[in-house]
Structure formats: C-alpha cells, structure tokens
C-alpha cells in the first residue's frame, strides 16, 4: 500500500476513534413529561413537571447519568395534557413519534394516565407514572410502566383503620366519587370501619368544577353524621371544608386530598381548616420529611418561588429511579432492558418520598411503588404530621398481583 | 325537614342571584339586539379577575375595587359592541354567532394569560355566620343576595322609568318606529352592552367572592344564563329574575333531596318540563 494511503487511513481511523470517544463522553437524553400544566389538574401536574425539570438539572449539574462508557445529560420536553385523556394521548404520541422520546414521566391524574397506559405497552418507550392513583394502572401487568405513588385503596385501608380507631361510626362521604380511585379509597375505608360496626351513611358527589357544596352539606347535616370524609381534588375539597364551617357543622372532618397549605388557604381561612385531618400517603411534609425532603422543599421553593405541592416528589423520584435503571443497564437506548431494570433497583438514595420497598426493590413485579401513609392534621395554619398509618406493602403487592 | 328545605332555599338564593344577573345581561342583549352573546360569561369573569387584582395586587379595599371593576365593565361592553358586534350588525345572524364564539375563546385565552390557570378567590373579610333557629347563613351570602336585589331593582328602574330606558324598550319593540320617533338607535346598542356587561361583572365579582374564578367557570355560567333565559321567557326581564331564582333554588333542592350527582341534570329537566307546559317560558309572551 502506498505510504500516503496508509497515512490517510491512519488519520481517518484516528478521527473515527476520536469522534467515537467524544460521543461516548457525553450524549443528550431527552425525557418527556406529559402532565396537567393548565386546568383543574394543574395543582398536581404543574409541580410535577417542575420537579422533573429540577431533578434533571440537578443530575446534569452533578455530571449526568453515567451509563457504561457514556454520560447522558438530560433534556426535558413537557407537554400539557390538561388531565384530559385525549390531550394526554396526543401529548404522548407527539413525544414518541415526533420528538423521539423514550422515557415519559409526570402523569398526575388518573383519567389521562389510564388512556396512555392503554397503549404504552405497544411502544418502545417507558412510562413512569406519578400522582395518578387509580389502581388499575398497575394491575394490567404492563412491562414498560412503573408508578411511584401507591394506589388509593392501599391508603384507604390505612385511613379506615385510623377513623375506626377514633370511634366515629356514622361517616358521611362527600367527594369526586365518579373518579375511580376516590371511590376505591372510600370502599377501603368502608371495609375497615364496618369491622368495628361503623357505616357510611351518605355518598354525596361533587365534580372538579363544583364550588358550591352547600346543598350536599345541608343534606349531610340533616343526617347527623359523626364525621365527614372528603375525597377529591384540593380546590373543591377546600370549599367543602369552608362551607361545612359556614353551615355550622362542628364534627370531625377527614380528607384525602394531598393539598398544600398554600393551596387550601387560597379558598379557606386557617381557622376554617383547624382540626381537619388528611389521611394520605406521607408524601412531602416538612415535619415528616427526610433530609432529602427538606432539601427538595428548599430548592424547589428557591427555584420556582412557590412551595412544592406534597405530591410533586412522585415525579422528582421518577427521574432518580430512571437514572438508577439506566446506570444498571449501562445504556439508555435499550428501553426493554431499562423497563426491566426499574423493577429490580433498590430505592435510590436521592429520592424524597419514604418508600416501603417490597423484597428490597423500589417497584414490585407489577411496577408499583409503595410509600408510607400518614395522618396529618391542620393545626394553626399548617399540616402537622401526627402519626404514621400502618400499611403492609408486601401483602398489598400480593393482592395487586391477583387483580387483572 | 322544614329546616332543611328552608336551608336549601337560602343556599339556592345566593347562586340564584348570580344567575339572575347573568341572565339579565344576556336577555337585554338578546331581546334588544338579537345577539346570543356567548362571551358574556368570560367577560364577567374578567371583571371578577380585575377585582381580585385590585384587592390583592393593588391593596384596594373591596368596596373601592367593585365600582372600578363595574366602570371598567361598562367600558368593556362599549368596546365589545363597537369592535366585535357592530361590524356584523346588518349581516346574517350566523356572523354574529361566530363572532360571539370567537370572542369567548379570545377572552378565555386573555384571562388565562393575564391571570393564570389557578383559581382565585376575592378576599372580602366577611366571615361571620348568621344563625336563626336551625338555619345558618354566612354574611357574605346575605350581602350577595341583597346586592343582587339592589342591582336588579336599579336596572328595572332604569329601564322602566328613565327616558333612555324607554328608548331601549322602544327599539326592542319596534326598531323602525323608534327611529321615526327620533330615538338615536346607534347609541342604544352601546348602552345595552355597557349595562349588560356591568351586570355581568357584578355577577363575576359575586362568583369570585362566594366561590372562585377559574378558567372555564364563565363558560359554564353562560350556559346556565341561557337556560334561565329560556326558562323565564326570551327577552323578558321579570322572566330572567324569576327563572334565575327558580334555577338556583331547584339546583339546591335537587342536590339536597334527590342526588348531588344529577344537580345540573335535574335543573335542566325542570326547564324542559316548564317549556313543555309553557313553550314561551314562565313569563314570556306567547307568539
């Protein structure tokens, strides 16, 4: 071979190697967020999207995701699904088909999430669900889907035990009972209070857009319940608490809402909220938060000039779970392997929520994660963590595996 | 039982007051100009948002913010008439219909851009609760009912007892005859829109103080407003007052005694039943 040809081949080889090394050194991994950024679900969805962006920035600042020889810097594209099934389907299709995204996070609300879950199994993409609590999302055995938030009935059972222990027998329910997971929560509560001779004496309904609950509350007042249980989105729930006081209902008020102090105080006064219980996954409350939780709260508040909603770390934790899974696999391109790895990783050290791993893993075989449940009470202007509600994640995981 | 019925009636009166104000605005525009002004609800919410901004952003007392918002409401009404509806006044009715739909989307979008997606509640500082026997009533609801009565009375006096009011009624009865009688028919639509929007803004403020203002609330309210219009009789002021009150109380009683899940459905069923018996509405004139 002539000498100059050898030289050329050598230079070309060196260039190819150099290029290869450069791409191995740093790659961009685009992750998508489909969540409610506007509309009624935005109280949950927007903080989730913010949390994903914050986690991505933190990971990038710490050097990115190191997988095998590659390092991935995260880029986030967020689309508004308005908590609407059609919008969510469009948003996810856009992420997969147009933007080439393989990892989709967020998902605050059950209706929109269920719509995406119905087809995600056919896609070369991984779906990480956050705040959406509808049980069926993780009963379909979808291999490329995991969820950080426990199903509503897992929490409902713990809540029912707590209410039964408090001694109230006649409970009136007012809530978004046309939403599956809220109804599941109430069913679980009912099962537990029935064990001690209690009963649900009324199931009154409100919708996401309802703001005047006085007709339902007047009806409930006429039934003389021992307590009311409010299950639903923060905004209508806040009106229930306020209007119950306005109607002179001086009985214990339990709830399942996961709203922050700031969200409630937009509608009610602290005096009107005094004594209200929220029986929910422990989530983010400063008093019960780990070191990570305290740091998350401070960083989020500084970055977005607003307190994070208690449920927003579900999305933050998704990013760190994804990071751990990609690092375990050693590459981000193999979505099947990453989806499998998600079901094998232990709880990453950086997460905010307090997970109850099943057999040492963050997600069980159904792709379901479990956090502890807690009883919070509104005391003098803020939610105070009163006690943890005993919950058996392993037993529930086995129960979940039996469902289709 | 009696106490519950009375309580539900009182509950329904406050929201009924809001329906009356919305419906009066709609019926004025529809009865006199023949325009189905769908953007009325969204513009009303803009007034509520403005009051919220003046109170929380500028620190004005709510009683000072309300007249400013009402005055801005009048101006908004004039602008809407001049810029949106006047150009299509002599065109086919479908043009005004499309303008109304477009305007609704535009105002909703503007509200979203200016005030965000979060619901807002206008702080009033009125938190006392009045108790009478077994009936309770927050003072805010009482003031809302009283304010609605005052506004309705003021409007009735304006329409029935003033020269401008007579001119408005004359145009509504017979536009050509009104022109022959020397009525300035160019001014009437402006006055009608100004008055109607001010009433809508008052309703928006009430909704914002009693409940909350949020994207989409105005659209729901305007649907109820049109339902009241049909229930009371198209173009009839007393019909709008009666229809709004009936709808508010029916919703409340239906939610309390039948099912809260069908609150809206039951209200519309009542409307259909009334129309089956009286197609012209409760106080509408038979054709």
What's the CATH architecture name of the largest domain in chain A?
3-Layer(aba) Sandwich
User: Biggest interface and its residues per chain?
Assistant: A-B, 31 and 38 residues
* Computed CA radius of gyration of chain A, to the nearest angstrom: 23 Å
The number of helical segments of chain A is 14
Query: Between the first and last Cα atoms of chain A, what is the distance in angstroms?
Result: 68 Å
CATH homologous superfamily designation of the largest domain in chain A = Response regulator
Query: Which overall shape of chain A is indicated by the principal axes computed on the Cα atoms?
Result: globular
CATH class of chain B: Mainly Alpha
Strand arrangement within the widest β-sheet of chain A reads 8-7-9-10-11-12-13
First-residue to last-residue Cα separation of chain B: 41 Å
CATH architecture of chain B: Orthogonal Bundle
Using the CA coordinates, give the radius of gyration of chain B: 19 Å
What features would you describe in this structure?
The complex is a heterodimer of chains A (404) and B (287). Chain A has 404 residues and is an alpha/beta fold. Chain A has two domains: 11-151 and 287-372, Response regulator (Rossmann fold); 153-285 and 375-402, Response regulator (Rossmann fold). Chain A contains 14 helices and 13 strands. Chain A has helices at 3-25, 42-61, 85-98, 110-120, 152-166, 180-194, 214-222, 234-246, 261-265, 270-273, 291-304, 313-329, 335-342, 393-402; strands at residues 27-35, 65-67, 70-80, 103-106, 126-129, 145-147, 170-175, 199-205, 227-231, 253-256, 277-281, 373-379, 382-389. The radius of gyration of chain A is 23 Å and the shape is globular. The relative contact order of chain A is 0.13. Mean pLDDT of chain A is 90; it is low at 15-23. Chain B has helices at residues 2-33, 40-57, 62-85, 93-115, 139-161, 163-173, 175-180, 187-210, 217-232, 237-257, 263-277, and strands at 129-132, 135-138. Chain B has one domain (2-277): Orthogonal Bundle (ABC transporter involved in vitamin B12 uptake, BtuC). Chain B has eleven helices and two strands, in the order ααααββααααααα. With 287 residues, chain B is mostly helical. Chain B starts with a helix and ends in a 10-residue tail after the last helix. Chain B has a two-stranded antiparallel ribbon with strand order 1-2. In chain B, β1 (129-132) and β2 form a beta hairpin. At the A-B interface, α2, α7 and α8 of A face α1 and α10 of B.
């Amino acid at each position: 071979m002539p000498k100059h040809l050898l030289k050329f081949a050598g230079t070309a080889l060196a260039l190819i190697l150099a290029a290869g090394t450069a791409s191995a050194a740093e790659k961009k991994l685009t992750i998508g967020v489909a969540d409610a950024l506007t509309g009624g679900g935005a109280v949950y969805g927007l903080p989730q999207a913010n949390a994903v962006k914050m986690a991505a920035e933190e990971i990038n600042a710490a050097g990115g995701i190191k997988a095998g020889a590659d390092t991935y810097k995260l880029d986030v594209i967020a689309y508004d699904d308005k908590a609407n099934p059609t919008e969510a389907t469009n948003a996810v299709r856009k992420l997969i088909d147009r933007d080439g995204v393989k990892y989709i996070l967020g998902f605050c609300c059950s209706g929109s999430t269920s719509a995406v879950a119905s087809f995600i199994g056919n896609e070369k993409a991984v779906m990480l669900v956050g705040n959406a609590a509808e049980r069926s999302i993780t009963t379909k055995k979808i291999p490329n889907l995991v969820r950080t938030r426990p199903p509503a009935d897992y929490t409902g059972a713990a809540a029912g035990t707590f209410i039964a222990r408090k001694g109230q027998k006649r409970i009136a329910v007012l809530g978004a009972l046309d939403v599956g997971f809220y109804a599941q929560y109430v069913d679980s509560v009912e099962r537990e209070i029935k064990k001690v001779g209690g009963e649900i004496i009324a199931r009154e309904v409100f919708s996401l857009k309802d703001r005047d609950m006085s007709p339902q509350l007047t009806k409930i007042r006429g039934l003389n319940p021992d307590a009311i249980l409010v299950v639903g989105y923060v905004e209508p729930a806040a009106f229930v608490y306020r209007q119950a006081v306005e109607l002179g209902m001086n009985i214990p008020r339990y709830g399942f809402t996961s709203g922050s102090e700031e969200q409630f105080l937009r509608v009610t006064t602290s005096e009107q909220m005094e004594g209200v219980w929220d029986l929910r996954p422990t989530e983010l409350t400063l008093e019960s938060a780990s070191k990570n939780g305290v740091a998350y709260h401070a960083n989020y508040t500084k970055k977005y000039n607003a307190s994070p909603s208690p449920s927003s770390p579900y999305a933050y934790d998704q990013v760190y779970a994804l990071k751990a899974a990609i690092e375990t696999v050693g590459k981000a391109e193999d979505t099947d392997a990453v989806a499998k790895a998600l079901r094998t990783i232990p709880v990453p050290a950086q997460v905010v929520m307090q997970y109850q791993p099943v057999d040492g893993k963050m997600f069980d075989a159904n792709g379901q994660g479990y956090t502890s449940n807690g009883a919070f009470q509104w005391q003098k202007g803020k939610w105070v963590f009163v006690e943890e509600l005993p919950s058996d994640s392993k037993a529930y995981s086995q129960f979940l595996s039996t469902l289709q | 039982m009696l106490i519950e019925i009375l309580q539900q009636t009182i509950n329904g009166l406050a929201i009924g007051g809001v329906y009356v104000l919305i419906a009066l605005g709609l019926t004025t525009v529809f009865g006199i100009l023949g325009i189905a002004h769908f953007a009325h609800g969204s513009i009303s919410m803009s007034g509520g948002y403005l009051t919220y901004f003046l109170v929380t952003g500028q620190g004005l007392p709510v009683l000072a913010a309300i007249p400013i918002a009402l005055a801005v409401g009048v101006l908004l009404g004039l602008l809407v008439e001049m810029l949106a509806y006047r150009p299509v006044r002599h065109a086919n009715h479908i043009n005004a219909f499309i303008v109304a739909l477009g305007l609704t989307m535009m105002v909703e979008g503007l509200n979203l851009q200016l005030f965000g997606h979060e619901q807002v509640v206008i702080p009033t500082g009125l938190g006392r609760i009045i108790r009478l026997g077994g009936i309770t009533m927050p003072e805010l609801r009482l003031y809302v009912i009283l304010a609605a009565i005052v506004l309705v009375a003021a409007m009735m006096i304006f329409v029935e007892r003033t020269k401008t009011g007579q001119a408005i009624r004359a145009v509504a009865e017979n536009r050509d005859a009104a022109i022959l009688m020397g009525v300035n028919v160019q001014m009437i639509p402006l006055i009608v829109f100004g008055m109607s929007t001010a009433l809508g803004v008052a309703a928006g403020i009430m909704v914002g103080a009693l409940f909350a203002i949020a994207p989409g609330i105005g659209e729901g309210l305007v649907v109820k407003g049109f339902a009241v219009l049909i229930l009371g009789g198209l173009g009839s002021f007393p019909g709008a007052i009666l229809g709004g009150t009936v709808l508010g109380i029916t919703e409340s009683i239906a939610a309390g005694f039948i099912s809260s899940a069908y609150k809206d459905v039951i209200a519309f069923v009542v409307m259909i039943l009334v129309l089956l018996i009286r197609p012209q509405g409760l106080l509408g004139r038979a054709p």
